[in-house]
Automatic annotation (TrEMBL), chain A:
It comes from Candidatus Thiodiazotropha endoloripes. Keywords: Quinone, Translocase, Ubiquinone. Pfam families: Oxidored_q6 (PF01058). InterPro entries: NADH_UbQ_OxRdtase-like_20kDa (IPR006137). GO terms for biological process: aerobic respiration; electron transport coupled proton transport. The lineage of its organism: Bacteria, Pseudomonadati, Pseudomonadota, Gammaproteobacteria, Chromatiales. Residues 40-152 form the NADH:ubiquinone oxidoreductase-like 20kDa subunit domain. GO terms for cellular component: respiratory chain complex I. This is NADH-quinone oxidoreductase. One of its GO terms (molecular function) is quinone binding. Transmembrane segments: none annotated.
TrEMBL record, chain B:
GO terms for cellular component: plasma membrane. It comes from Candidatus Thiodiazotropha endoloripes. It comes from the Bacteria. Residues 131-423 form the NADH:quinone oxidoreductase/Mrp antiporter transmembrane domain. This is NADH dehydrogenase. Keywords: Cell membrane, Membrane, Oxidoreductase, Transmembrane, Transmembrane helix. Pfam families: Proton_antipo_M (PF00361). The chain crosses the membrane at residues 9-37, 76-97, 109-132, 138-159, 166-188, 208-231, 243-267, 287-304, 311-331, 343-361, 381-399, 419-439, 459-481, 514-535, 608-624. One of its GO terms (molecular function) is oxidoreductase activity.
């Protein structure tokens, strides 16, 4: 499963032309207002402060750091991903609201980099979650980071950056790779299959052997309900 | 004998006390008393002409004691305070009916005594508000003090201690007021207001100073002005739920009523303004204003430190009293209106907040801010009420607290008192911080495992809470309605109010129209709502599907930060909490103990017959010569 699968092309529904204008506008706005959630290892993190602060100043492009995944657009992985951390990274990625983009910085995310012999690191990030953009280098300079992010902006603006949909369409593949690493009882709180139905992104690869395995182990989290009123006759504990 | 409306009101109120006294052991006493409060409120509404500048209503009853005529009457100021008192009594009593009573009884509380104490409080407050001269004022004052003591002591235990502390302060306050009344009597030869007004014109500066200090400190004790504020928080917080909400809403404001009557109406702000403190640049009025500002700041930052929701709110009660006094001391039309309006606004907010806290306490059994959290998912309506209350308390639009505080700030700026203004801003900052602590630690964050199955508060509690929340919003939207009563009340104490419109005030230097303010605010909310709802349906997620630095959360992991809240800020201001007032109180206590020990020593060691003989001789000599 180590080869990159081809992302299926989906034919666009024909709608009225004005709808497309609106979509273009939304994409344009989206590409100019990006919030980064950064998972930074020690080495990669060093390149980001100069990129964010006054010297290179990412904010002139409309890119800002953000502290919680629910409000973030970009998950920035800078550096090697150890297996322990990968669990957290996947949890965080699944908690982000779509559309979401993953940017892998440094060679470690591309192929394991200098840690390619290590037993404790995940070599290729895109086996576990769809990655929109890699910025290779050890370390890439802030200019490279910024030009990479500009590239991502262009792709968002043109509508090419839709690999987040791939996570839903081919969930079974990604989940399989995750189960290979973390064991069969691996589960995150987010219910991806329900979300795929919610976004109408059920693909051929969404369900499969691995999701069946997941459903056997899964302990569901029920949403919190709001409760009002009560039966007065009930005794008060 | 024909009864006037005021007589009807007082008789009604006395009947409420009797009903609570006689039928209090029976069932459904809470409902009966609540209905009777409603009846009193109806009689008060019949007197509504007072609130629009009608003539004062006198009571048919008048007594003559030792040549002093006692009389009772209601004017616009009394009516305004009585309205707040009765609405607070009605709603808090309603809150106590049914479920709360049952639980209180289960925990060994005395329901009969509680309702009796509440009814007595309302009755004595009405008597105080109706007083027509200094002597009846003093009688009403003492009655209110003791009724308050009864209500505070109902719960027993810690509450008794707090109540004892209160009554010590109250007795001292009563004595200083009595001393002041004696001085006034010596100067004026009568205790009627008209005679006193004439006498004040002829008083020397020394006499006036003495009176301002005596009356100011005596009434200030009830109000919780610095440095006499230490009794209040514990006494109010430890009172059983609805009683606490009632006391917090209106009880201390009786002190403000008396200050308005005596210091503002009888002595006049102009006279107080002319009392200079030697060798300094300030006069008595500045002194009052600065006391008010420090009353805002210190208790508010003490509230910030509290970990018990009841105590936090009770400390705020002291702080907000400072705003009222400050507005009234500025004595220009805006400030006075703001200060007096804040009495009503604050009463609504405080009652709502305390009721919400006690509703949570009713369900969870604790008001400890470190043991709650995430209750918004279980008690959404209580959350809504508390949210309304804290917005009002912090003085932010669209709630009513904004109007009164805006008026006070405005008057300070117009009078050119930037330092006082800065003080109020510091106080407001503390208020906002601490009310956020309150709502965050109770309702936001992580729901605890032990609260997984609690329910929303019962409707008997919920309805009065929602009524109050509605009041807070409505008086914030249409502040013209209560401001009309406020201006009528201000005229009775010789101040002028601002020009009123339905949405606020009309003033040459800048008007306030809350209808516009709230309209703009809600338009903003509307745009946000359109964006939010046009983006498709939202998805509710489980509380544990949450981001905490990438941790996998489970119910036994605490990820909500509530203990030692504001630790960074506290680190900065820790040095300011020195307990100076506590130290002052302790030192005075020690001094009194030391003196009494000395007196005992002399008395016990010497010959008691000799004392008796010399006292007798002295009395005979005094009679003869």
């Amino acid at each position: 499963m180590s080869t990159l699968q081809k992302i299926p092309v989906i034919e666009e529904k024909k709608g009225n032309p004005l709808a497309r204008v609106f979509d273009d506008l939304v994409r344009f706005c989206r590409s100019r207002s990006l919030f980064i959630l950064h998972y930074c290892t020690g080495c990669g993190a060093i390149e980001l402060p100069p990129a964010m602060t006054s010297r290179f100043d990412m904010e002139r492009l409309g890119i800002q750091p953000m502290v919680s995944p629910r409000q973030a657009d970009i998950l920035l992985i800078t550096g090697y991903v150890s297996i322990k951390t990968l669990k957290r990274v996947i949890l965080t990625y699944e908690q982000m609201g779509s559309p979401k983009y993953v940017v892998g910085i440094c060679s470690c995310t591309v192929n394991g980099g200098m840690y390619w012999q290590s037993y404790a690191t995940a070599k290729k990030l895109d086996e576990y979650m769809p990655v929109d953009l890699y910025i290779a280098g050890c370390m890439p300079r802030p200019e490279a980071v910024i030009s990479g992010l500009q590239k991502l902006m262009d792709r968002i603006n043109s509508g090419e950056a839709d690999s987040w949909q791939d996570y839903y369409r081919n969930y079974d593949y990604y989940l399989g790779n995750q189960q290979k690493l973390f064991g069969e009882d691996w589960q995150t709180p987010t219910d991806i299959i329900t979300e795929a139905k919610h976004y109408e992104l059920m693909g051929e690869g969404t369900l499969g052997d691995h999701t069946r395995l997941l459903e056997q182990h899964q302990k569901p989290l029920e949403a919190l309900d709001m409760r009002l009123g009560h039966n007065i006759k009930e005794s008060v504990e | 004998m024909i009864f006037s409306l005021l007589d009807e009101l007082l008789i009604f109120s006395a009947a409420t006390v009797l009903v609570a006294l006689i039928l209090g052991r029976g069932l459904a006493v809470g409902w009966m008393v609540t209905i009777l409060y409603g009846g009193q409120l109806l009689v008060l509404i019949k007197m509504a002409a007072l609130g629009y500048g009608g003539d004062p209503i006198a009571s048919e009853l008048s007594l003559s004691v030792m040549g002093q005529d006692l009389s009772w009457r209601f004017d616009a100021l009394s009516w305004f305070f009585a309205l707040i008192t009765l609405v607070a009594a009605l709603l808090t009593s309603w809150f106590s009916c049914g479920e709360w009573e049952r639980k209180f009884k289960q925990q060994g509380g005395n329901v009969w005594l509680f309702h009796l104490a509440m009814a007595l409080n309302v009755f004595t407050m009405l008597i105080l508000l109706a007083s027509g001269d200094l002597l009846s004022l003093f009688i009403g004052w003492e009655l209110v003090s003791w009724a308050g003591f009864l209500l505070m002591a109902v719960a027993g235990g810690v509450a008794t201690k707090a109540a004892m502390r209160y009554i010590t302060y109250a007795v001292v306050g009563g004595m200083t007021i009595f001393g002041g009344i004696a001085l006034v009597y010596a100067a004026a030869g009568s205790l009627q207001y008209e005679a006193i007004l004439i006498a004040v014109e002829k008083m020397s500066t020394g006499q006036l100073w003495m009176l301002v200090l005596l009356f100011g400190s005596g009434f200030g004790i009830k109000m919780g002005l610095l440095p006499f504020h230490l009794w209040q928080a514990a006494a109010y917080a430890e009172t059983p739920g609805p009683g606490s909400a009632f006391l917090g809403a209106i009880s201390s404001r009786m002190g403000l009523f008396a200050i308005l009557l005596v210091l503002v109406k009888l002595f006049g702000i102009v006279n107080i303004d002319s009392l200079k403190i030697p060798f300094t640049l300030i006069d008595a009025r500045d002194l009052l204003a600065w006391i008010a500002v420090f009353t805002i700041i210190f208790p508010t930052y003490t509230a910030l430190k509290q970990n018990d929701a009841r105590y936090l709110l009770a400390w705020h009660g002291i702080g907000q009293g400072g705003y009222m006094l400050l507005g009234l001391v500025t004595a220009n039309s805006l400030g006075a209106a703001g200060g007096l309006l804040h009495v009503l606004n604050y009463a609504a907010c405080q009652a709502a907040l305390l009721m919400a806290v006690f509703a949570v306490m009713h369900r969870t059994g604790t008001a400890d801010l470190n043991k709650l959290g995430g209750l918004v998912a279980r008690m959404p309506l209580s959350f809504l009420v508390l949210l309304t209350g804290i917005i009002g308390l912090a003085g932010l639009p669209p709630m009513n607290g904004f109007v009164s505080k805006w008026l006070v700030y405005r008057s300070l700026l117009e009078d050119g008192m930037p330092l006082l203004f800065l003080g109020t801003i510091i106080g407001t900052l503390g208020t906002i911080l601490s009310v956020y602590k309150l709502i965050h630690n109770m309702f936001l964050g992580q729901l605890r495992v032990e609260h997984e199955h609690i329910r929303e508060a019962p409707w008997s509690m919920m309805i009065p809470m929602l009524i109050l929340a509605g009041t807070i919003f409505t008086t914030g939207l249409l502040p013209g309605i209560p401001l009309t009563w406020v201006t009528a009340a201000l005229q009775t104490i010789g101040l002028t109010g601002p020009e009123i419109t339905l949405g606020g005030i009309e003033s040459s230097s800048g008007s306030l129209d809350m209808i516009w303010v709230i309209g703009v605010l809600f338009a903003g909310f509307g745009i946000g709502a359109v964006i939010f709802y046009s983006a498709g349906p939202s998805k509710r997620v489980h509380q544990l599907d949450n981001y905490a630095g990438g941790h996998f959360l489970s119910a036994d992991v605490r990820y909500q930060y509530s203990d030692n809240f504001y630790s960074g800020l506290m680190h900065l201001i820790r040095g300011w909490y020195r307990g100076s007032f506590q130290w002052l109180e302790n030192s005075i206590t020690s001094l009194v103990e030391f003196l009494s020990l000395g007196m005992q020593g002399i008395y016990r060691r010497a010959n008691s017959e000799f004392y008796l003989l010399s006292t007798a001789l002295f009395i005979i000599a005094w009679v003869v010569f």
